[in-house]
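During the practical work, I selected for study one protein's amino acid sequence and its backbone structure tokens, as given directly below:
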Amino acid sequence: MTDAPIRVLVCEDQALVRAGYTTIFSAQPDMEVVGEAADGRQAVEEALRLRPDVVVMDIRMPILDGIEATRRLAGRGVERPAKVLVVTTFNVDEHAYEALRAGASGFLLKDAQPAELIASVRTIAAGDALVAPAVTRNLIGHFAERLRPTDTARPALDQIRQTLTRRELEVLEQIATGLSNAEIAEKLSITVETVKTYVSRILTKLDLRDRVQAVVLAYRVGLVVAE
């Protein structure tokens, strides 16, 4: 018996781009495009109706933008949060980081190669967050100013330091700087499997859904600060 295919919902207002995504995903033996949406409101409606495994979401869409659509599908308080992969043009879209804060499980640039797009959908469908290290670094450099901690963040930071072990704090700091598990393992002189264990513990202890939320939290409370 084979595994069920990954059910993908494509949300993109440009018809040619949307058709391109659909063609790419449909050509994969382990994927099935179950629907398409041309605006944010339709994206929310279709995601709630179809319950896809992964929602591929453009940020800039009419009627309801991708950020708000993502928030309605995966934000805080959503009972059955969707797994959303945000795809956008980084150099144009200054609201990209907001999509991650709104609950997106992954972030990819529109100039990514088809193989990277396919791999990203598989990663998110498997339950892992995806922000490519290089993208994370760019995002941090471009948007972290907006996440500078306030005075109210201090109690939250103290709580995190009490909750996590010293090594877990070190791993969280490295995650926030955009390092991959392999890079963290090399920097801390531990195995990749050990890093994965630490990441899992961090997410569980801090009640975070994925790696993306860990990055946002680290900056929000001041565990790491943009240079």
